[in-house]
């Protein structure tokens, strides 16, 4: 536990390589997301996905005891010169600033680049979170004043961190993603047995269609995937991004270096027809959670997206004993595949008092609307009610 009598020093680091890897890792546990790992953040910097001319300027913050120089806290931090690659949208706020002759950029961002996955951002011992969080956030506000930074934004926080930001007068923002949660399933059929009869039959029909098209899948963990496998994944990533009008934030070298940097925490799922590669999907894992990030295909196959992005990873998570599967941002169609609404949290503070008040009011109304939407989604969850009995004969159909 943090000694309140000791003097503390906060430092901003323009590269994560300025921080010792072992020290950063000492603040993590095996259940922490791989995205908050030193190696993942360094990979983004080493391959030029963030840094000079990307609009993502690293400024990772560390907090040390002054006398011993022991690292007691760290936060992934970036000065942003745009709002791309964040998945929590503030374009309207930026436009309002512009219309009033004010600069919204640069802004300060506490987040993992290009990654809409909830994970710890204030790295410290749990019991130190209130004090460490308060020190960090007070210093961040001072930084905004000295460097003419408009605002501070922290994305995809956990619930405890959102409370720490709230104590520092940040406005809370709540959204939803669709996550799968393991309720002690023994296998995929056990998972299907939790569905209503109609939804269960729909999923079985979708998976039969995969078999009818002679599509097969295999998992490649870490260095089991070859350099050619990763190059093909990158090309499929580009195709998917292009089809949806997105921006390719990640470079080919990022994909090629993934196994060397993250080992067994990264994996490829490949789909083939007659031994010909037709799709690939990129996944990450902690000791408890599987994270789906990108997928792509060479051409369209009926239901292949559902198989590669939902059913295969759910089946994999059950076999591995994982508790959660996060399938990424957006996608209400995930609901009927057994992924349920799960809240995500962000926090926001604007240096301009008038705009900060306006954003506070907006987010209050947005939360009310979000609560109504979530209640509506909860009515559409495809699982049987606990009071109903399951017809074994029906499951065999």
Number of helices: 12
CATH architecture of the largest domain: 3-Layer(aba) Sandwich
CATH H-tier superfamily of the largest domain: Gcn5-related N-acetyltransferase (GNAT)
Biggest sheet layout: 11 strands, mixed
Radius of gyration: 22 Å
From the helix content, strand content and strand pairing, which structural class follows? alpha+beta
Distance between the termini: 57 Å
> Would you report the number of β strands?
14
Average pLDDT over all residues: 94
Instruction: Summarize the amount of helix as a percent range.
Output: 25-40%
Order of helices and strands: EHHEEEEHEHEHEHHEHHEEEHEEHH
**Residue share in β-strands:** 15-25%
CATH class of the largest domain: Alpha Beta
Could you give the order of strands across the largest sheet?
Answer: 2-5-6-7-14-8-13-12-11-10-9
Tell me, what's the shape? globular
In the predicted model, the low-confidence regions spanning at least 5 consecutive residues are 386-397
The CATH topology of the largest domain is given as Aminopeptidase
Number of domains: 2
What can you tell me about this protein's structure?
This protein is α+β, with helices and mostly antiparallel strands and 397 residues long. The protein folds into 2 domains: 8-169, Gcn5-related N-acetyltransferase (GNAT) (Aminopeptidase, 3-Layer(aba) Sandwich); 179-339, Gcn5-related N-acetyltransferase (GNAT) (Aminopeptidase), CATH 3.40.630.30. The chain has helices spanning 21-26, 38-46, 91-99, 129-147, 159-167, 188-192, 197-212, 227-243, 252-262, 304-320, 353-378, 392-395; strands at 8-13, 56-58, 60-65, 71-75, 78-80, 107-110, 151-157, 171-181, 215-221, 266-273, 276-285, 289-297, 324-326, 340-350. Strand 11 (276-285) and strand 12 form a beta hairpin. It is globular. The chain starts with 7 loop residues before the first strand and ends with a helix. Residues 386-397 have low confidence and may be disordered.
């Amino acid at each position: 536990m943090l000694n309140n009598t000791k003097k503390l020093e906060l430092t901003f680091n323009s590269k994560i390589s300025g921080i010792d890897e072992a020290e950063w890792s000492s603040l993590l546990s095996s259940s922490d997301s791989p995205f908050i790992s030193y190696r993942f953040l360094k990979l983004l910097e080493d391959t030029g996905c963030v840094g000079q001319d990307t609009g993502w300027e690293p400024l990772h913050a560390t907090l040390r005891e002054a006398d011993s120089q022991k690292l007691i806290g760290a936060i992934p931090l970036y000065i942003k010169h745009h709002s791309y690659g964040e998945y929590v949208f503030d374009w309207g706020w930026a436009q309002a600033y512009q219309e009033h002759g004010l600069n919204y950029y640069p802004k300060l961002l506490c987040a993992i680049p290009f990654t809409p996955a909830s994970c710890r951002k204030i790295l410290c011992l749990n019991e130190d979170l209130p004090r460490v969080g308060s020190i960090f956030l007070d210093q961040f506000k001072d930084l905004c004043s000295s460097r003419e930074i408009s605002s501070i934004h922290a994305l995809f926080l956990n619930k405890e961190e959102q409370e720490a930001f709230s104590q520092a007068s940040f406005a809370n923002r709540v959204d939803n993603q669709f996550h799968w949660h393991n309720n002690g399933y023994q296998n995929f059929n056990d998972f299907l047995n939790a569905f209503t009869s109609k939804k269960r039959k729909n999923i079985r029909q979708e998976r039969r269609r995969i078999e009818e098209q002679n599509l097969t899948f295999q998992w490649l963990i870490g260095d089991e995937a070859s350099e050619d496998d990763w190059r093909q994944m990158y090309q499929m990533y580009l195709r998917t991004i292009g089809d949806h009008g997105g921006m390719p934030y990640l470079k080919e070298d990022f994909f090629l270096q993934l196994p060397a940097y993250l080992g067994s925490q990264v994996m490829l799922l490949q789909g083939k027809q007659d031994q010909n590669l037709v799709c690939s999907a990129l996944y990450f894992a902690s000791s408890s959670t599987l994270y789906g990030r990108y997928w792509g295909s060479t051409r369209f196959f009926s239901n292949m997206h559902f198989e590669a992005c939902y059913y295969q990873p759910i089946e994999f998570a059950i076999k591995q004993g994982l508790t959660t599967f996060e399938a990424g941002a957006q996608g209400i169609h995930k609901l009927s595949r057994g992924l349920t609404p799960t809240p995500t949290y962000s926090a926001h503070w604007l240096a301009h008092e008038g705009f900060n008040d306006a954003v506070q009011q907006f987010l209050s109304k947005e939360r009310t609307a979000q609560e109504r939407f979530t209640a509506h989604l909860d009515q559409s969850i495809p699982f049987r009610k606990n009071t109903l009995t399951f017809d074994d004969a029906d499951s065999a159909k």
